[in-house]
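2024-03-11 09:14:02 INFO queue: dequeued item LysM peptidoglycan-binding domain-containing protein, len=215
2024-03-11 09:14:02 INFO validating residues
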Amino acid sequence: MKNRWTKLGTRSAALVLGAAILLPGLTAHAATTYTAKDSDTFWKLSQQMNIPLQKLMDANPNINPLNIYAGLKLTIPGEASASNKLTMNAAASAKPIQAVATASGKTLSYSKVLNITATAYSAAPEENGKWGAVDYFGNPLKLGTIAVDPNVIPFGTKLYVTGYDFSGLPTGGFVATASDAGSAIKGNRIDIFVPGSAKFVSDFGIQSVKVYILN
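2024-03-11 09:14:37 INFO prediction written
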């Protein structure tokens, strides 16, 4: 169901270990250095540091949001550097306080749960246009690829999706990554990639699902 004819261009240029994200209008002495953890994303950092997500994203147009990893040095705006340091220290030592049990019995920590309207799409050419069967970043579509409105669920966010009823998806729920977009996917909507023919995938229809934003 995804219409990707207005899809944006592919982003690239992964960060190099030790590189810094520089934010406009700030001098070096006004910024704070933060060492990323494996679970960090731009969205999580914006929430923890009380910094607008769009400011981080717009300031780093060549940064791949799927490639923030442990040990990476990030530069955080320093308007309130003392406060940010306290927030970062607290975030680094904070323990998960919310968890969801998966169908396999694994426990996943999450920061937020959303009630979302979901549709599904296949790798069929008519659903993917001239870009072919790839996501927003040029990666091949696979089970676990989800198209989102990045203003609601930022790219790179890990998700646990449950509450659907469809034989083409794992029973009970599955872990996914927000790595695709589409002009028809706006607001509290997601489009789930499902392997199979367009006819088979269309049987998914429109369903209400729960989406857990994972830590």
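2024-03-11 09:14:37 INFO annotate: Residues 100-214 form a domain with the Barwin-like endoglucanases fold (CATH 2.40.40.10).
2024-03-11 09:14:38 INFO item closed
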